[in-house]
Amino acid sequence: MPRERRRWAGRGEPARYHSSFPRPVEPGVLAVDGVLGLLWIVLMLGAFYALLLRPQRRNMAAHQALMASLQEGDEVMTMGGIYGRIDKVDDQIIELEVAPGTSFRVARSAISRKVEN
Question: What domain count does the chain have?
Answer without folding.
Answer: 2
